[in-house]
Write a structure and sequence with these properties.
The structure holds two protein chains of two kinds. Chain A is an alpha/beta fold. In chain A, 46% of the residues lie in helices and 19% in strands. A five-stranded mixed sheet of chain A has the order 1-2-3-4-5. A two-stranded antiparallel ribbon of chain A has the order 6-7. The chains are: A alpha/beta, B alpha/beta. At the A-B interface, α2, α3 and α4 of A face α5, α6 and α9 of B.
Chain lengths: 190, 296
C-alpha cells in the first residue's frame, strides 16, 4: 500500500487557516503528526508513505522534532506489532533541511529523501557500512543477503546483519522475495 | 505615595537594568510612575521590556511618554502605545501611529498562543529576506534560519512562561559597539522564568548552587528542558547555532541573572549574577551586517 501525504494540506487542516504554510511550533507539529498517524491507521501490515514537503515554506526545530523525529521513532519502535510503516520524504529543500538534520542527529535517526531527479538517498545518522549497503540495495533493486554479500565482497552473515539493521531502521523493506530500498520501488534496474 | 522610576535617555538591554534596580525596592502593589519623558531612543528590547514591566505591577502604573515628538511618534509606529495603554495610565503627548516604520521588521506583537507564532513567522519572512540580503549583506538563505530563530524564542513564551509576552524585530545602526547595521529580535515576558520552569520538571534534583544563573546555563548552554522528552531543548540550541553561524549575539535575562553568547565584536559579560530581580525571561538576538571577507 502506498500513500501520499501533502504536509501543507495537513497543516492547513490542523491550524484551520488557509494562510499558513510554515510548520512551526511544537503543538502544530504534534497535531500534524496525529493527523498523519490517523491517516496511517487504516494501513495494512506494510505501507509506504510519501511525506511531501513541496508546499511547506519552512519548518522549525520543535516542529521537526514532532513531525519527523517522533514519527520515525514510533515506526522504528518494536512496539508496533506486525505493522511496518515506511516513509519516503519528498520536496525537502535547504529551507527545511537544517531543522530536519538537527532532529535526526539528536535522536540518531535516518530517513530516505527523494531528490529532485526522482532518485533517493539516505540521510541522517547512518554508519558508513549501512550507507554503502543501502546504496547497493538501492542499485540492485530487490535483493537478498547472498546477492548483497556478492556485490559488496562481504560475508553473507554480515550482509544479512546489515540488511536487518536497515530494515529495523525502516530504510529497506523486507518482503517474501527479498529486501528493497525505500525509494527504490518503481526505478529501473539493469 | 508614588515612586518615580526614571527611564534612561537611551533604553536598551543594558540600561534597562537601571529601571529594574529602581524597581527593586518598590513593592509590586505600590503606585509607580514610569517616567520616559527624557528618553530619546529605545531598542526593541527596551520597548518590549517596558511592556512586561507594566504586566508585573499589581497596581496599574502610570507612564509618562517621551517629551520629544520624534521619539514618541517613533514609539507609536512600533506599536508600543497600542499595548501600553492596556497596561498603564498614559500621560504626556501620545501620538497616534501613522504609517509603518521602514526599520521595523515586526512591530511589537503579543505572543500568547501557538497561533501567534505562526502569525509572527508568516509576517516576518518576506520582509526579513529583503532586509537581510539588501541591508545586512547576509545570504538570502539565512532568512529561513532567522524565521526559525524567531519562532523558537517566541515559543519559549507559549511553552514556559505561563503568561503572554511580546516580540519585536527591528534594524538599526549600532554605532556604539559595532558601527554596523544590525537586526535585533527582542522577546520579553513576565512569566515564571527559567529557574521556576526547570524546577517544575518531575523528580528534578537541585544542586547546592541552584539559582537563576545556573538555570540559564542549563537551558541556554546545555539545552536542558523541564520536559523529559529527549527531543526538547533543541530550540535554544538551534538559536545558538544560527547566531554563531552569522557572528551574532544572543542574551537571555531571567530572574536575577543574564547569560550571553558573546561574539568577538562585543565586550559583554557572558554571565551576570545577582542582578536586581525581574520576573520572566527577556531574550535578545542580534545579527550584524556582514562585511566583505567575513566577520570583522
Amino acid at each position: 500500500m502506498m500513500m501520499h501525504i501533502d504536509l501543507s494540506s495537513v497543516l492547513r487542516q490542523t491550524v484551520s487557516c488557509e494562510l499558513y504554510s510554515n510548520l512551526v511550533t511544537r503543538p502544530t507539529g504534534a497535531a500534524v503528526r496525529a493527523q498523519i498517524e490517523a491517516l496511517l491507521a487504516d494501513a495494512r501490515e506494510r505501507s509506504l508513505t510519501v511525506i511531501d514537503f513541496s508546499h511547506v515554506g519552512m519548518i522549525d526545530f520543535s516542529c521537526a522534532d514532532e513531525v519527523v523525529a517522533k514519527l520515525l521513532l514510533q515506526t522504528t519502535s518494536s512496539e508496533r506489532g506486525g505493522r511496518e510503516a515506511y516513509f519516503l520524504f519528498r520536496g525537502v529543500t535547504d529551507d527545511h533541511w537544517d531543522a530536519i538534520e538537527t532532529v535526526l542527529e539528536r535522536h540518531r535517526l535516518a530517513l530516505v529523501l527523494e531528490t529532485d531527479d526522482g532518485a533517493a538517498r539516505v540521510v541522517g545518522t547512518v554508519g558508513d557500512g549501512e550507507r554503502v549497503a543501502w546504496e547497493k540495495v538501492y542499485e540492485l533493486g530487490r535483493t537478498g543477503p547472498a546477492d548483497l554479500a556478492h556485490a559488496l565482497g562481504a560475508d553473507e552473515s554480515d550482509a544479512l546483519e546489515v540488511l536487518n539493521t536497515l530494515h529495523r531502521r525502516r530504510l529497506v523493506m523486507r518482503t517474501d522475495e527479498g529486501y528493497i530500498a525505500v525509494g527504490g520501488i518503481g526505478i529501473q534496474h539493469d | 505615595m508614588t515612586s518615580v522610576i526614571t527611564v534612561p535617555p537611551s533604553l536598551d538591554d543594558h540600561t534597562f537594568e537601571q529601571v529594574v534596580e529602581q524597581l527593586a525596592s518598590v513593592p509590586p502593589d505600590a503606585k509607580v510612575l514610569i517616567d520616559a519623558r527624557h528618553t530619546r531612543w529605545a531598542s526593541p528590547f527596551g520597548l518590549t521590556a517596558l511592556l512586561t514591566l507594566g504586566q508585573t505591577r499589581e497596581e496599574r502604573a502610570a507612564f509618562h511618554a517621551p517629551d520629544t515628538e520624534d521619539t514618541a511618534s517613533y514609539w507609536a509606529r512600533t506599536g508600543f502605545f497600542k499595548y501600553a495603554e492596556e497596561l498603564f495610565d498614559l500621560h504626556g503627548s501620545v501620538p497616534r501611529a501613522r504609517g509603518g516604520e521602514s526599520s521595523v521588521l515586526l512591530e511589537i506583537t503579543p505572543v500568547v498562543k501557538s497561533e501567534d507564532v505562526h502569525e509572527v513567522v508568516g509576517r516576518i519572512q518576506q520582509k526579513a529576506q529583503q532586509i537581510l540580503a539588501k541591508e545586512l549583506n547576509i545570504d538570502a538563505k539565512a532568512t529561513v534560519g532567522f524565521a526559525m530563530t524567531l519562532s523558537e524564542v517566541c515559543q519559549n513564551i507559549v511553552e514556559h512562561a505561563g503568561r503572554g509576552g511580546w516580540v519585536a524585530v527591528q534594524t538599526y545602526t549600532w554605532r556604539k559597539r559595532l558601527g554596523r547595521r544590525v537586526v535585533v529580535i527582542a522577546v520579553c515576558d513576565a512569566g515564571c522564568g527559567f529557574r521556576q520552569s526547570l524546577e517544575s520538571a518531575p523528580g528534578r534534583v537541585r544542586s547546592d548552587r541552584w539559582d537563576d544563573a545556573e538555570a540559564l546555563e542549563e537551558a541556554v548552554v546545555r539545552g536542558v528542558s523541564r520536559f523529559r522528552d529527549p527531543g526538547r531543548g533543541q530550540g535554544l540550541a538551534g538559536v545558538r547555532r544560527y547566531v554563531g553561524r552569522w557572528d551574532g549575539k544572543v542574551s537571555v535575562r531571567s530572574g536575577t541573572a543574564r547569560i550571553a553568547i558573546v561574539p568577538s565584536w562585543d565586550d559583554d559579560v557572558p554571565l551576570l549574577e545577582k542582578l536586581a530581580p525581574f520576573p520572566g525571561s527577556q531574550v535578545q538576538v542580534t545579527i550584524p551586517e556582514r562585511v566583505s571577507g567575513g566577520p570583522r
